[in-house]
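Input/output pair, single chain:
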Amino acid sequence: KAKAITDAIVSRMVDLDSPLKPEYWDTWWCGRIIVQEGGKATSKFFNKRWCVVCGRIREAKLRNQYVKPISEIGDLYFVTLTVPAVNGDNLPDTIAKMYKVFTRVKDNMRNTYGIKLKGIRKLEPNFNYWADTFNPHYHVLVGGREAAEKLVSLWLGAFPDAVRDAQDIKKATEGTEAELF
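Output:
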């Protein structure tokens, strides 16, 4: 099913006059040929970001890599940090600012409030087709309610035009890391 979805997308892209045309063809060939030797079946994957199959493989590798360190943090909260939607031209600058602000907030939490931020963060820029805008936001798994609340508070201080109700703090439950990855 994932390969069919990728093929439906990339089959239109291979005909574009684009410098990415060879990348699109790699995606079309990705996982297409399966070789079986004995009881083992293998295929070649090209790891393109837009390939649904490769995205699932990347997600599984990340989840396996982080499951132990995340479980050692304890008292996990799932935090969403957003900024106002931006058009495509402003997306790179907005993301760069988000990275800088997050680092500043993390350092401020440690130096001013004595809260060492433990967790993991992932950036996700959703696209709104109808408004032609992007909503870049972080998903963060962080240890402790106090850290989660201080993170949101300082984030809103750095982005005063961000909507408070768009920020979210939820107690992490089993499977929460799936949304993160």
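The radius of gyration is 20 Å. The chain has a mean pLDDT of 91.
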